[in-house]
Amino acid sequence: MILRDPLEEPGIQENFKLTHTCYNHILAVSSFIFITLILGVILFFYDFKVGLCITFVLFVLAELVPILYLHITYWQENKDVEYVITDKEIIVIRNSKKVTYNDYDIKKIIIYKSASMDAGGMPILSFESYFYVKVIINSGEVLFLTRLLSPKVDIIIGQLKGVLIERKKLWFSKLSYTEGNNHIK
Prior knowledge:
Layout: E1 3-4, E2 15-18, H1 22-45, H2 50-78, E3 81-85, E4 89-94, E5 97-102, E6 106-113, E7 132-137, E8 141-146, H3 153-157, E9 165-169, E10 182-183
Parallel strand pairs: 1-2, 6-9, 8-10
Antiparallel strand pairs: 2-3, 3-4, 4-5, 6-7, 7-8
Helix pairs in contact: 1-2
């Protein structure tokens, strides 16, 4: 079994190992860091005027709170788990136990993602760069694969053949536990 870097575009019948990396975490918050630095430079050029400083702090807090919420919930969802995605199955490795879900075991896959992140889009607000994939198993079990596993988890999961894939556009991609009755943790 050959494992490729999930940051590369997936090829046909290739396998991808998805797991937490420091790089994925930094990439997830990079737009927030970039916007904060730009606003800091603007404040510097305007001599840190009180009105601008207050606006800056309010904007940073308005961005930071949802990012922290999403980042922590995504991390909690996918900590201590690895996924191997092929064109025919999803292998879940948790605590040295391996569970395989074949394509015929999967009821459907739902990608929850902001509309601004479609095909080369750029998030308007930093938290829009957070998205996830929900895999609903025929038995009712649910897997959540978040963007902390890979910034291209939606593309990688798309290589599964013969599985219904839906796309739901959300402004704020909070994990949705409503469909599927057995959340796998």
